[in-house]
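FORM 7B: Structural annotation worksheet

SECTION A. Query
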Amino acid sequence: LEILNLGYVKRIILGSFDEKIGLGLNIGFHPLLKADDENNQSSFLYPISGRFNGILIQSDFGFFQPEIILSKNKKGALSQDLWALNLSASFRGLDFGLLRSEGRLKNVSSFYDRNLSFYLKGTKGKLALSSEYSLLNNGATGWASVLVFRDEPALMELSGWSYSNNYVHLFGAGPSNPDYILSEIGEVEYEYPSREKGEKGVMLKSAYRLSSRYSLNFSYSQWEASPYSPLKLRQKIGLKMILAEKLKTGLNYLYSN
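SECTION B. Predicted structure
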């Protein structure tokens, strides 16, 4: 259930939902909670349609937009609780915010996950820059930045990221490459698939629209999945074609090591 624009309340969400704040390092599109017993993957109170399950309230006082999230998920013997407070503001085209989240994963014992992050987004002409810095309660840090240049018919995006070796956060997922590393959370006997732990990398993506039916795209990325792994790279060149209103196709060349 989503309710919009009630006075100073911009939106209220009740139920199962997804949410991304900033670049998603603190609150974002993280892997869904998994249980060993597949029969307990979903229920009426704890569905699997969204990553958060509870209530979201966001207000709008002009330049100041606070937001609160209360969430509880349960899969089999595992339970996951979260509260998050987002204090965001806007000033002369610059959006920025301070985000605090506290979560708990409980099974045979409890694992506490606390994250404090600062994020910003600014736009100047054809350029847009977004950044976020995250600090966990164990001292691990993560940061990411994305720079976008848009000048029709061209689009270019440059991103970079770096995460500490012990950076494991259960409720967010910032920019990274799709290499998951299973991290054993020993206190609760749970393996969490993390894309961020120990990873550093950069990515360049670009697209150019040749016509209403044809467009070219290119991407290049290089990253280290951990300080002990070799440098990896991937590049792709593609041609996208729209043959009819509901028929699209494309050609891609992909290289990776």
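SECTION C. Observations
The two ends are 46 Å apart (CA to CA). The mean pLDDT is 87.

SECTION D. Sign-off
Analyst initials: ____
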